[in-house]
Amino acid sequence: MNIQNFPVLAVMLLFLSAFLVEIFGSKIAAIRNFITIVAVTVSAALIFALIPAVLIKGEVISYWMGNWEPVAGYAIGIGYEVDALSLFFALLVVCTFWLSAVYSISYMKDDHHLGHYYTLFLMLSGSVLGLVLTGDIFNMFVMIEIMTFASVALTAFRNGTEGALEGAFKYLVIGSIGSSLNLAGIALLYAECHTLNMAQLSAILSGGLSPTTVMAFALIVAGFGVKSYMVPFHTPAADSYAVAPTAASMVFSGMVNKAGVYGMIRMVYIVFRAMDASALQMLLVIFGTLTMFVGVTMALAQHEFKRLLAYHSISQIGYVIMAVGLGSTLGLTGGLFHAMNHTLFKGLLFLTAGAVLKQAGTTNLDALGGLSKRMPRTTLYFLAGAAAISGIPPFNGFASKWIIYQAAYTKAVESGNFLYVIVTVAGLIVSVMTLASFIKVTQAVFFGQLREEHAHVQEPPFLMRLPMFLMALLCSAAGLFYPLVNRYLLHPAVDATVNVTNYIDKMMGDGYAAAAGVTNIPVQEVQFSFWDPLLWLVLFVVVFVAAAVVIMAGKGSRGRVLEEGAVADPKYATFFSGEQELYSQVGGSDLFWGFKKNWKAYYRVMDKLHSGIVTDYTNMAVIAVGVIVIVMFIFLI
Amino acid sequence: MFRKLMSKSAMKSPWLYHINSGSCNGCDIELVACLTPRYDAERFGFKLAGTPRHADIVVVSGPITSQSKDRLVRTLAQVPEPKCVVSIGSCPRSGNVFKGSYSIEGPLEKYVHVDVSVAGCTPKPEAIMEGLYQAAQILKKKREVMGK
Amino acid sequence: MPETAQYILWTAFYILIFPGALFTSVVGLFLAGVDRKVIAHMQRRIGPPIRQPMYDFFKLLGKETIIPHAANKFVFLAAPVIGFVSLAIIMLFIPIFGFTAVSGSADLIVILYLITIGGVALIVGGSASGSPYAGIGVSREMVTMMSYELPFVLVLLAVARKVGGSTLVFSMEQISQWQVENGHMLFQWSMIPAAIAFLLIIPAEVGMQPFDVAEAETEICEGPLIEYSGAPLAVFKLNTAMKMIIMTGLFTSLFLGQFRTGYYWADALLFVAICTVLTILCMTTVHAVTARLKIEHLFKFYWTIVTGLALSSLILVWLGL
């Protein structure tokens, strides 16, 4: 087996099995599941097999479709090219769809027309994988199209539920805007540079940008902004994530919007090589900060579990775009790390939301409560995910946010620009607000009092618990061992992003990059000073000692820590000022009014902006595209 | 040694939870008077707790009206061991002037073992302090028994 | 591997005894005792002995632990321990004048997040108890946290900028070292608003009146702590006491870091003395003369007045003053 073929095989296998599932598996569940699981597993294995070569040895894998290699210095065929950046995102993608496929087997069991579901699922997986692995910008556009339409169909998959068609329609409209912007940009680029190969584009464009390419650049940045749900384009995300089957929501937030982020990084850092321009940095940082702020404040106002998670997806992507936009290697490291962490913890949180939806039948925060009694494991997984997304040490969210703050404040100090101080502060405050909204979910769904109708809710089946467990494990592992993550994943990816000679030479032949004047710059090492395995070891000992003291003290005096008592025994009843225990749940809507009251004016504006009317959303998107184009025209030419 | 420390602490830091079971407020005011600068019960470590879960000494005043009986019993059950029950005034002891009323379900002894009973209508703050202090001693003994 | 063994032993010593768990708890309980004693004197009472919080702690250890049936047992019991551990760890990052146990390049952010864990432990524990009173307490605690976090972040960034100049400094040790060379941070006039803001943050962080809306015992029955009894409650009370030394200690390190006696024990004593003074100044006095705020007023207070103070400091520092 030639390792150069692996990326293409991985993508093709998924597309092929998408059709096989429909042909052979539309009636029989066993065949359907078998094909899906085999396809995603083999595809994931093929991607994992690239790790030694790409991430450790630093090679670039390339494959010319139909063996159409460059002729006379022009790349005319479609080339697949996998550098560390591509592989980094590809790993996120394969992890996401593998776990989601496993989860789907149990989760989707009761739905109809599952053949369609798996077809769409595999199409989506294949397209996102193809998008991150391809080296051809038009191929990228094709993958975006497949991705968008598969996502739209998946959003509408449960078309009997309220809002499914509406969500799909919004997704379709806004998503098409994004695709068209990309297509227009690519067309301009092709007209100007006569090639579609990203390596060659990079070499050609390193000479400077002409007005045409700036226009193309602006359109493409806006296009990928739509795909990653940057703020004025974020509106369909909430609707579609909330109504799609949860396994699909997880895929959307885990890899579909990562595809947008990947495209953004690929374009601004590699193809256009324009991240030195401070105007572009500011543009991305401002959009990123807006995204994270609007996302989190909207999340605080939600009453629906999955919708709340959707707004958090938007908010966390804001962190990534902000960090990437800083233009420093530290920022890039933080951004990539946060993208990875977001895939892990948001996937985990969506899966727990799916477990709640499946077992309790609703995700309305005002109609749930006390589920931790019935679903203790799910609760623990949820708490791990919530801690990770709120950046609580030692989970992974802390590590990446920590790097992002450092990067942002370093930028502030170096450039002397007060804007970046505001950005740092915004990042820290958004983190606290994220925590607040997850406290709300914890209180409204898992703790508090159990409703009567949920008295017999069960823990989800094993195949649903397994992906949650694995993701919780990955969340804590990535947080505890982040220097290793940095060394083997982030550093190669960052290196590949800023040093592209290898990427260009592999495709276009040795010396091509040097001839075009592309040079390498060294990557700054990230300092992880407080990480120390022994410190953590001792810390765990302390945890055990402290826990032992608490338990022993209770034990030594009482003989035992009391088990939960019978309901009849008033001793173990909740204290209601002496009244008999009655149902009284402090639910999602009731929390944080002290905060919301002070922010009334802000929420009034937000209410108006999120009108739910597609025309308004389209207007917002068009205005934002205009702003991006104008700003880039003024400052980049 | 650890146990001894805990027993000693049990005496030194009794937290009060006050239940008014239909009292005329006279005893309640006198209880609050104990915490004022003039009597300063805090110098013995007494402190009013907000919930029965934190309490060591439950202070009951009033003649136990039928409305308050269930609430009283429930709240008393929610206090963790070791605990003491102190009744203040004549009402929880005997029903006082309300004795024989259709709405009185006292005395307190019917529902719970009363460790210290402070008589008077109303008892003076000094008497209440004395009663509470005795309850603290009993608390220590209970804690010692519990430790074994 | 004798060096590794030695290293582990020293780390264990730092975490468990000084300046970690034991030191923080003992001094914290001492400060809580001082607080109660002084407030009693202010009200012309004799007041409890200074060791009263220790009595409270040991008494609570000896009490029965009741786990209500609506509670999630594991989270209910684990929350106070997690809070305790995170608070014990914070002290490692705060230099006690000449002495620093652990120093990194971004201590300030680590401290910020570890302090948050202390609050989160209270919130999650209260939430896990299943009581609606706790639910209200949780909501208020979270809003309190959001209120003081903004000025807190601004103060920390102002200090970092003042020390770092044109480089990035988030390291406590460097901040301490800078003060040895340039004098107390408090006496840099541009930092005075930040110092005042920090002093105003301390009572909210610790949960002292007038900012104890979350644990208002007279209206919502101690809020998140309502169902706690026995040992877990003892740990929570200890956590509150530890926050007193941590917050005052942080202030001491950030703003009064010039003192050096040359001896670690004398440094530690001086440190405790300054923390005591700060406790009396910014917690006891405020507590004695104010009544509890409403939660929306608390939020407004922190996001306007205190944030304004901190921000003015940051801008002054940014302008190079």
What's the gyration radius of chain B in Å?
15 Å
What structural class do the secondary elements of chain B suggest? alpha/beta
Work out the number of β strands of chain B.
5
Query: Roughly how many Å apart are the termini of chain B?
Result: 13 Å
What does this structure look like?
The complex is a heterotrimer of chains A (637), B (148) and C (321). With 637 residues, chain A is mostly helical. In chain A, helix 9 packs antiparallel against helix 25 and helix 12 runs parallel beside helix 17. The two termini of chain A are 48 Å apart. A five-stranded parallel β-sheet of chain B has the order 2-1-3-4-5. In chain B, helix 1 packs antiparallel against helix 5 and helix 2 crosses helix 5. The longest helix of chain B has 23 residues. Chain B starts with a helix and ends with a helix. The longest helix of chain C is centred in the middle third of the chain and has 33 residues. Chains A and C meet through helix 15, helix 16, helix 17, helix 22 and helix 23 of A and helix 1, helix 4, helix 5, helix 6 and helix 10 of C.
Task: Give a quick rundown of the structure.
The complex is a heterotrimer of chains A (637), B (148) and C (321). In chain A, 71% of the residues lie in helices and 1% in strands.
Please render the helix and strand layout as text.
The complex is a heterotrimer of chains A (637), B (148) and C (321).
Chain A lengths: L5 H19 L4 H20 L2 H6 L4 E4 L14 E4 L1 H24 L6 H20 L3 H19 L8 H30 L4 H8 L5 H17 L7 H9 L2 H26 L6 H23 L4 H21 L3 H32 L15 H14 L6 H20 L2 H29 L15 H19 L1 H17 L2 H8 L3 H5 L16 H26 L34 H6 L1 H10 L4 H23 L1
Antiparallel strand pairs in A: 1-2
Helix pairs in contact in A: 1-2, 1-5, 2-4, 2-5, 4-5, 4-11, 4-14, 4-18, 4-19, 5-6, 5-11, 6-7, 6-11, 7-9, 7-10, 7-25, 8-20, 9-11, 9-25, 10-11, 10-13, 11-13, 11-14, 12-13, 12-17, 13-14, 13-17, 14-15, 14-16, 14-18, 14-19, 15-17, 15-18, 16-17, 16-18, 18-19
Chain B lengths: L1 H11 L2 E6 L5 H10 L11 E2 L8 E5 L4 H12 L6 E5 L2 H4 L21 E3 L6 H23 L1
Parallel strand pairs in B: 1-2, 1-3, 3-4, 4-5
Chain C lengths: L1 H15 L4 H22 L9 H10 L11 H21 L13 H22 L3 H33 L7 H11 L9 H15 L10 H4 L9 H26 L8 H26 L5 H24 L3
Helix pairs in contact in C: 2-4, 2-10, 2-11, 3-10, 4-5, 4-10, 5-6, 6-7, 6-8, 6-12, 8-10, 8-11, 8-12, 10-11
